[in-house]
Design a protein that fits this description.
There is one protein chain. By secondary structure, the chain is an alpha+beta fold. The protein has one domain. 32% of the residues lie in helices and 10% in strands. A two-stranded antiparallel ribbon has the order 1-2. Strands 3-4 form a two-stranded antiparallel ribbon.
Length: 90
């Protein structure tokens, strides 16, 4: 763990700054971002976590489920599956 919480770390996915979480008095209590797996073995900023890491995790979860169960999960939780920009389109 990084003991110098005033240091701004970089996101391993986009290279941007990892957001610092601060107390009401302005002191930093967390600056290490999010676990970026399965996209990367490093850390992710809030944006990359929301836009890349969580969808990748959901994709893995849905891939392990029976199709009917995956469909129910998607419908009940309003999950939107985005098409990967790197995939070829027909």
């Amino acid at each position: 763990m990084n003991e110098d919480r005033s240091q701004v770390l970089k996101c391993d996915l986009c290279g941007g700054d990892i957001e610092q979480k601060k107390n009401d008095d302005g002191s930093v209590w967390w600056n290490e971002g999010h676990n970026a797996q399965p996209v990367s073995n490093g850390k992710a900023c809030d944006t990359c976590n929301n836009e890349k890491v969580i969808p990748a995790r959901m994709g893995e979860i849905l891939g392990f489920m029976e199709p009917e169960n995956a469909k129910t999960l998607v419908e009940n939780f309003n999950i939107i599956i985005k098409e990967d920009d790197n995939e070829q389109r027909d």
